[in-house]
């Protein structure tokens, strides 16, 4: 590692340690930058390059991780907000909505009062489980064992009510496997994710069938060219297989890269779509 790179690495490591140790006081950009002897502007840019996110966003991730643990221990929303260093429940609410895509109350009750329909189906690439709420598709995954597939779905919202039924939302989603993507706009999605994840998944939906993109090109599209690694993580967390086409993203070298449901399946998907668009 070059001398300047080592200095920068040590500065960011020190900043991360400081944020972790002091998140309850919610330190600002100027305070953290001062601890590593950088101007706020330079520190913001350097931190984003090395960590793939901003100092503020990293602080939010640390804060929400602590808040989630408190809520799991049945602490009140008010006590959780104060213990996390937030001024009140309204800031805790904003933090959860921005990072988790749900309110702290919804997180705490594990999806209570949420009704989820699910069904099992076959696809050209293996068996899938597809699930939906009244708002739209919330989950599609490939599976080898039905019981394990259902258990994985239920872990996301342990307090939700489930019933095995094929509804209209699921039928519209399954239509994609046997027809083209011209009716994609008719499919509604109900996704839970951070603001960054939602932006990545939205970008994936814009990749045309039969075409490929790179992690770097997605990052540039989001105006964050140094966030390729963060983009890759968000793609790996995609809750709706195939419909949100994370299989269309490859490495800049041309290598396929990883895939949550197996590289062989990713290869088959890319080839299948290429054949359909070249007909």
From TrEMBL:
Transmembrane segment boundaries: none
Enzyme class, first EC level, given as a word: transferase
Domain (HTH araC/xylS-type) ranges: 13-110
UniProt-listed SUPFAM superfamilies: Homeodomain-like (SSF46689), Methylated DNA-protein cysteine methyltransferase domain (SSF53155), Methylated DNA-protein cysteine methyltransferase, C-terminal domain (SSF46767)
UniProt key word Transcription regulation: yes
The entry's keywords: DNA damage, DNA repair, Methyltransferase, Transcription, Transcription regulation, Transferase
Gene3D superfamilies: Homeodomain-like (1.10.10.60), Methylated DNA-protein cysteine methyltransferase domain (3.30.160.70), Winged helix-like DNA-binding domain superfamily/Winged helix DNA-binding domain (1.10.10.10)
Reaction(s) catalysed (UniProt annotation): a 4-O-methyl-thymidine in DNA + L-cysteinyl-[protein] = a thymidine in DNA + S-methyl-L-cysteinyl-[protein]; a 6-O-methyl-2'-deoxyguanosine in DNA + L-cysteinyl-[protein] = S-methyl-L-cysteinyl-[protein] + a 2'-deoxyguanosine in DNA
Molecular function as annotated in GO: methylated-DNA-[protein]-cysteine S-methyltransferase activity
InterPro entries per UniProt: Homeodomain-like_sf (IPR009057), HTH_AraC (IPR018060), MethylDNA_cys_MeTrfase_AS (IPR001497), MethylDNA_cys_MeTrfase_DNA-bd (IPR014048), MethylDNA_cys_MeTrfase_DNAb (IPR036217), MethylG_MeTrfase_N (IPR008332), MGMT_N_sf (IPR036631), WH-like_DNA-bd_sf (IPR036388)
PROSITE patterns in the record: HTH_ARAC_FAMILY_2, MGMT
Protein EC: 2.1.1.63
GO BP term, example: methylation
Name of the protein in its database record: Methylated-DNA--[protein]-cysteine S-methyltransferase
Species the sequence originates in: Pedobacter vanadiisoli
